[in-house]
Amino acid sequence: MKPPFYVTTPIYYVNDVPHIGHAYTTVAADVLARYKRMMGFDVYFLTGSDEHGQKVEKAAITAGETPLELADRVVKRYQALWERLGISNNDFIRTTQERHKKGVSHIFTDILNKGDIYLGEYEDWYCTPCETFWTETQLLEGRCPDCNRPVEKLKEESYFFRMSKYQEQLLAHIEANPDFIQPKSKRNEIISFIKEGLRDLSVSRTTFSWGIPVPGNEKHIIYVWFDALSNYMTALGYPENTKEFKQFWPASVHLIGKDILRFHAVYWPTFLMAAGLPLPEKVFAHGWWTVEGQKMSKSLQNVVEPNMLIDKYGVDVVRYFLLREVPFGLDGDFSHTALVQRLNSDLANDIGNLLSRSTAMTVKYYDGILPAPAELQEIDLALKKKTEDMIVNVATHMNDLAFSKTLQSIWDVISAGNKYIDETAPWTLAKDPAQKDRLATVMYCLLESQRIIHIILSAFLPTTTEKALCSLGCQGKIDKDELVWGGLQAGTTITKTEALFPRMEG
Ligand code: MSP
Questions:
Q1: Rounded distance, CA 188 to CA 340, Å?
Q2: Which residues pair with 132 in a beta bridge?
Q3: pLDDT in tens, 80-114
């Protein structure tokens, strides 16, 4: 049986339309899912939408719609974007679906029955945009410490989750599992946060109605984060012990942005501990994108819309840029200049030229029929070794979710391929009949190295690599068993490719 691998993205709020921040996590998750599938894992890749809560309710009122009408409309924009971006999710969960509501009611009731959710009274400061309560001392100059917006004082009867009870157990879990929270800097932040002391958490509201009611006390609505986090299990069929739940829970990795780490690394694990369920193996928080040096925001009107980027540059260019430009885990800056620079140098020049030069020569010297190689010389063996080493390096970097490093190690081989052409000078060999075997060997090694490159790259650039593999006569052969030198058969028909990536003016 194939080993399971379960990767999730956050579920996105429907009060906002998708921007590059959302596309970023989803593309990263897709690359990971595709890579793991290729490496022989049984992958479950989940994304979805977070449709309840006061924020969505308010947005719906402003738009003159019911919350569900708003959700139905916005969710289509997310789904259409994922389709355009080539996202290969297995499932899309909406928190308004019955399967989800049922699961949330169940886990809430279960923790209540076990005694770790109790009814009490709440008085504190609430930040609606962040859907977060703050104590007086946490406020910064009377405003939300996260977003700096005004907060309101709320007093209400509320259900509380006994989070304080799990403080030591959570710390012990984090200590015992060094990879549970990544990157390391973020892990340290969470440890300090927990050590400051965990308070019990208010997990219901009575001030609005758009959400899942507390079973048996319906004037209470379950806190939107309690509701949302449960999606990772309800999508698998929880509370039913379905085949999917048995196979894929606990999740292998939750990919999220750094702003929602506390919910995933403190709240979620303690809910699970209270319910007696296993914790996810890893929570990885990536950084945030600014745009041309500024925070991305509606008021600054600088929100980068992924559809516009795809129209302008093409889907694989966008996927490549997002994961190459910034090491996963750090903040980064988006600019059109940087994107065009990557497009022209890494994509059009390096990988695009390599394939068009080598396929054009095969067509010219061999009518496109790949010759068999003769004995490999030192320079050929060096290219072979570089290609083989890359497969191992990629596995290490992908395991660390170091997408940018993965691409760098692939590009090392691409550069080596271009250098190999210059050094072996096939056009000179072609003029000398005595070098017939040498030319065949060079052409074979060049194309074989690229076959492996494009298989590995298919996780990142699915559309382009399909074209490339097609021109190498091995389309559809995306599997770890194909990642072995010598897979390309002599006699294969090689066709000349059009430029994989047309250059653009900056
Ligand atoms: N609904 C919650 C998540 C619930 S998960 C159980 C939520 N939704 S969100 O739509 O506001 O944000 C989703 C993700 O987008 C977060 O991971 C957030 O970090 C990410 N980003 C939002 N703006 C971003 C950038 N400017 N840059 C990178 N990621 C950003 O939070």
A1: 36
A2: 127
A3: 999 999 999 999 999 999 999 999 999 999 999 99
Strand 217-222 with 253-257, pairing: unpaired
Q: Report the distance separating Cα 59 and Cα 84, nearest Å.
A: 26
Atom of ligand 1 nearest to the CA of 16: 10
- For residue 65, list its beta bridge partners: none
Ligand 1, atom 23: closest residue by C-alpha: 21
**Residue 468, CB half-sphere, CA atoms under 13 Å: how many?**
30
Distance 25 CA to ligand 1 centre (A): 8
Q: Give the C-alpha separation, 494 to 363, whole Å.
A: 7
Distance between Cα 387 and ligand 1 center (Å) = 37
E-strand stretches of 35-87: 42-50
d(CA 270, CA 291): 36
CB neighbour class for 219 (10 Å; exposed up to 12, middle 13-18, buried from 19): exposed
Q: What is the whole-number distance in angstroms between the Cα of residue 155 and the centre of ligand 1?
A: 28
Burial category of 506 from C-beta neighbours within 10 Å (exposed 0-12, middle 13-18, buried 19 and up) = exposed
Q: 288-332, pLDDT tens digit by residue? A: 999 999 999 888 888 999 999 999 999 999 999 999 999 999 999
Report the distance separating Cα 449 and Cα 421, nearest Å: 12
Cα maximum dimension of the chain: 91
- Report, in angstroms and rounded to the nearest whole number, the Rg of the chain calculated over CA atoms: 26
Smallest CA-to-CA distance from 392 within 404, 409, 380 is with 409
In three-state secondary structure terms, 133 is strand
Q: What is the 3-state secondary structure (H, E, C) of 167-229?
A: HHHHHHHHHHCCCCEECHHHHHHHHHHHHCCCCCEECEECCCCCCCEECCEEEEEECHHHHHH
Tell the residue nearest (CA) to atom 13 of ligand 1. Answer: 12
Q: How far is residue 348's CA from residue 346's CA, in Å, rounded to a whole number?
A: 6
Q: Give the pair of three-digit tokens for residue 151.
A: 């907060």
Whether the pTM exceeds 0.70: the reply is yes
Residue 230, phi then psi, degrees to nearest 5: -65, -15
Contacts of 157 (CB under 8 A, 6+ apart): 119, 120, 121, 122, 206, 220
- Bridge partner list, 155: 123
Q: Which of 120, 170, 133 is nearest to 272 (CA)?
A: 170
Q: How far is CA 294 from the centre of its chain?
A: 23
Which pLDDT belongs to residue 476? 80
Contact 43, 90 (CB under 8 A): yes
Strand 283-286 to strand 217-222: parallel, antiparallel, or no bridges (unpaired)? Answer: unpaired
In this predicted model, what pLDDT tens digit does every residue of 115-143 receive, in sequence order? 999 999 988 898 988 888 888 888 999 99
Name every protein residue with a CB atom under 6 angstroms from any ligand 1 atom. 10-13, 16, 21-22, 24-25, 50, 228-229, 231, 256-257, 259-260, 288-289, 296
* Angle between the N-to-C axes of helices 353-366 and 462-471, in degrees from 0 to 180, rounded to the nearest 10: 10
